[in-house]
Specification:
mainly alpha
Length: about 260
C-alpha cells in the first residue's frame, strides 16, 4: 500500500507540474506547439500508427484546458486540431476510414489499426461528452460533437466489427489484430499477408482504448450494446489479475482464445 501511495503521489505531482507550466501557455499557443511536432509532418494522407501515437500526445489537452480554465478558446483550438486529424483519414478498400500508413511492426506494408483509431477518437468523444450535456456549449459546438460521435460509431466500432476482429466468449470480449494489409501507396486492394502479430489478441492497453471508446459512446448515446462491449473488455482484464502478497499483477498481453 505504501508503494502504491508513493507512486500515486508522484503521478499527481507530475500532472500538477505539467499544468502549472501550461498556465503560461494559451490555447492558441498549445495548438501551435502541437502542430510543430516534427513527427506530425506528413505527406498527403499517409499517417499510420506511429503518427497516431504522436498526435494523441496533445489531443486531450484541449478539453482538459477548457475544464481547468473554463475558457472556450480551448474548445475552439480542440475543434481545429480534431478536424485536422479527421482530414488526414484515408478511405480503405472496404469503404471505412482510418489513419492509414506504414504498419509499426512491418513498414513494408500499410494499414490502419485499432489503437491508432482509438487513441485519436477517444479525445474527440471526451469533447463530445462535455459539449452534448451542456446546452450553452451545444449551441456552438454541437455540430462538431455529433460529427465525432458519428465517426466513432462507424469508423471505429462498426469498422472493426465488420472486419471480424471482435470476439466474444461468454461474459468476456476481446479484439484481435487483423491480417489484411495494403501495398504502400495502393489503397485499392487488401492483401492477406503473413505479417508478425497478425490475428493475435491485442494487448490490454489497446483493448482498454477500445473499451473507453465504447464506454463513452454508451454514455453519449445511451445504446446498451456499447456498455456491454466495455463490460466484456474490462471483465476480461479483471479476470486476468492475480493477487500476489499485497498487490495485483497481470500480463501486458495474454491470448483470449485459440487464435
Amino acid at each position: 500500500m505504501l508503494r502504491f501511495m508513493v507512486c500515486l503521489l508522484f503521478v499527481m505531482l507530475v500532472f500538477e507540474r505539467s499544468w502549472v507550466m501550461a498556465e503560461t501557455q494559451s490555447a492558441e499557443q498549445r495548438f501551435e506547439q502541437a502542430m510543430n511536432n516534427k513527427h506530425l509532418k506528413v505527406e498527403g494522407q499517409v499517417t499510420g500508427e506511429g503518427f497516431c501515437w504522436h498526435a494523441a500526445h496533445a489531443a486531450d489537452d484541449f478539453v482538459t484546458g477548457y475544464l481547468t480554465y473554463q475558457d472556450t478558446a480551448w474548445l475552439d483550438q480542440g475543434v481545429k486540431y480534431f478536424d485536422w486529424l479527421v482530414g488526414l483519414m484515408a478511405e480503405a478498400p472496404d469503404g471505412y476510414q482510418g489513419w492509414i500508413g506504414p504498419f509499426i511492426y512491418e513498414k513494408s506494408v500499410w494499414c490502419d489499426v485499432h489503437v491508432g483509431d482509438a487513441i485519436l477518437v477517444n479525445p474527440m468523444l471526451r469533447f463530445s461528452e462535455v459539449i452534448l450535456k451542456d446546452h450553452g456549449l451545444k449551441a456552438k459546438y454541437g455540430e462538431a460533437a455529433e460529427k465525432y460521435v458519428s465517426l466513432a460509431k462507424k469508423h471505429l466500432i462498426e469498422k472493426w466489427d465488420a472486419r471480424g476482429t471482435w470476439r466474444e466468449d461468454g461474459p468476456y470480449g476481446s479484439y484481435a489484430s487483423w491480417n489484411q494489409y495494403l501495398e504502400p501507396g495502393d489503397l485499392s486492394q487488401w492483401r492477406d499477408k503473413d505479417i508478425k502479430k497478425s490475428t493475435l489478441s491485442l494487448p490490454f492497453n489497446k483493448q482498454f482504448d477500445m473499451g473507453i471508446a465504447s464506454l463513452r459512446l454508451w454514455r453519449i448515446t445511451g445504446e446498451i450494446s456499447y456498455r456491454g462491449r466495455a463490460e466484456r473488455i474490462f471483465r476480461l482484464m479483471k479476470s486476468r489479475m492475480q493477487l500476489v502478497d499485497d498487490h495485483l499483477v497481470w500480463n501486458y498481453w495474454e491470448p483470449m482464445g485459440v487464435w
